[in-house]
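Homework-ish question, so no full write-ups if that breaks the rules, but can someone show me the predicted structure for this set?
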Amino acid sequence: MIGLHIAVLTGLILVSSSVSSQGLNSATAKRGRILYEKHCASCHQLDGNGVPRLIPPLTGTDFVSGYKSRLIRILLEGLNERIVVQDEEYYSPMASFKHLSDQQIADVLSYIRAGFGSGATVITVPEVSAQRKKLK
Amino acid sequence: MRSIVILAVGFLYATIAFAQTPVTLQLPAGFEAKQVAADWGRVRHIAVNQNGDLYMKLDRLKQGYGIVRLRDKDRDGLYDDTLLFGDYTGTGIALGNGFLYASSNKAVFRYALDKDMNLVDPSKPERIVHGLIDKGQHGSKSITLDNQGYVYVNIGAPSNVCQVKDRMLGSPGMMPCTLLDSAGGIWRFRTDRTDQSYGDGMRYATGLRNVVGLDWNPVVNDLYVTVHGRDMLHQHYPEIYDAKLGAEMPAETFYRIPKGADGGWPYVYWDHLQKKKILSPEYGGDGKKQGAPGAIEPLMGFPGHLAPNALLFYRGDRFPKKYREGAFVAFHGSWNRSPEVQEGFYVVFIPMKDGKPVGDWEVFADGFTGKGKVANPRDAMHRPCGLAMAPDGSIYVSDDAKGMVWKIDYKGK
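A: Not a homework solution, just the prediction itself:
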């Protein structure tokens, strides 16, 4: 148990007691945060709460905390269908991020799951690679 | 009258609802705001009839209905009668020539009004337009009327900037942009014909990414619009646009739209700092190269991403002289200016004469967020979305976050 508290952003604090037990180390968290700010935050917002009517929140949804394979596929393939998150319908398309490396996808998704998915487990590079192989 | 729900909203309920008014709006000296409707959810555009009836178009059904009419039967200044009708969500609503017009994201309907301004049959509107593109993104259909029997319908482009793959880093712009055949412009239809679609109307203007605010200017008899500009300049081209420039650029725009006009989307955007039409980077732009020489220029540019959701020309004489012929614009507030704070969430005024701005825009009504600046639009308590003028010359502002409507009146001398 690493007793560190990592303040990643104003308003978002990753409590490492729950995070580190799931295997998110501070280096991954730092890389993930940088990737999140660069590629994700403009739409999903720094606090992960999304935008009413436009962009679904990453907080409080099993799209983030649930099946890893589905979450990885969304990043690799993008999303172009109506989805329902927290009883709200969203329909803005999300671009594919397959230009990111497996390491980058693993880092940013681990960061998102730890921060917004209530301490859900990390996503590993082999897990991303396995999904990428299934892409046609 | 089946399928119509009539609710009498009691005085007690109204008192409680208004006692909980959470925000105080900041207005110029002499103006006062009063909340006249509360908790209707996603109230998009609004219209006020000559007898004071307030019509609200809802983007989420309330008790199964998407249009609300509030009426003040006993003329005490409080709405005491509620009529719910229309089983569809949407944004657009307008009154004219004895009819109420309302839109879903695919169609436009009209409802006949009798001489007492009652709906003849709210369960049986005429469908005057149908089959319009709705792919979710920019799907809302704003409407306005001229004085020649036409309705103008915005058909927003289901795209950010017409890339081969929408919003995908590195994906080039389509050349030509085929989306413009059926979207990204204003279409005009007759008000008195049913079941018109693309083939029956005309593409009145093109190259407009997503118009949400539009109004007919009665002074010069022309269409004016406010456009939501593109996203992702900084996210996709950080080497040209740093984060601050990406937050500021491109302008949200205010256009006068002559018939046949081209606004230049997706090939160019309006740079309000350089005051030029700049070539989109997806089409080879570098932040400096100009493009689309045949496209019209806006009358005015606003800072990026503020989301101008409603436009209203002031036709009254109740407000001081400077407001005559001028325009009010309701800004919904931005979501993609981070890491800057979000902006907008206010109503601005543009002084105008003979259809042209005669001064800078100024904030007219502010304080809708309830908490000053917000980092995320979800933190804004209210988001201005619709505007209407009442017959007495006061104006109404709607909010699609909590479903409030305020009446703003001038009490000064």
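Now go work out the reasoning yourself. Hint: Chain A touches chain B through 29 residues (CB under 8 Å).
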